[in-house]
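Aldo keto reductase
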Amino acid sequence: MQTVTLTGRQVPAIGIGTWHMGDDPLKQEAEIAAIQAGLDAGAQVIDTAEMYGSGRSETLVGKAIKNIPRDQLYLISKVLPNNASKAKMSQSLDASLKRLGVDALDLYLYHWRGGVPLVETVDELERLKTTGKIKAWGISNFDTDDLKELWQLPSGPMAAANEDLYNLGSRGVEYDLLAWQTTHNLPFIAYSPVSNGDQLGANLTTNANVLTVANRHHATPYQIMLAWVISRPQILAIPQTSDATHMVDNVTAGNLKLTADDLKLLDQAYPAPTEKQPLDVL
């Protein structure tokens, strides 16, 4: 299974995303079963946020991991921009930890840029590290210019990861962002790695080239899209599903190795960018 190194720890390159999970009480049992199936299949990373369902996603994750040894998990959550201040962040973090039922996060992300000065957010994230409640911090929805600005701050290069949208149909980050992160040893976390169930997602799963590659590997189109995302080093994909069988398929996609011919076919269907594009955000 392909791996990435986050904060000095090697983890499988496909984790579990939880956006939109926890919102419907009727789906809770299935969602918990899906998360547990993913962990049983080898996943370690679970990505959530205080924004997701106003905390309901974190609560759901807390129920799913209640009996899982903590050292088998790599937990990521995120702080909202309006809570990313010296006055509010500690309280926000404590609430996330309480919902998750844990003492510390492995990685705490600044969800997207807001009105709080970046230096204040970074300084508070660094301070929270000293409390032991977070082992590391990072950012999300940052583009290349944002990262360059971050790196000018005294503690900016302490960032442990950047999480952005990335999938076969949305390759804008390849123009300069991925190379910048590679140069600066900053791992990349890909959210919506099989798109977001929209028209693009439907097109991806029915594309002739995607289906050709899927047939070669006796895999689903979704598995091929995930294998494509993590075919580059130091990229973690966090697909979301509430279906246990689909979850296992997602995680085991980490075992697929795409060939040069596979990658060429996929490039022909969905070419790499030739100019800078605005950062895709959901």
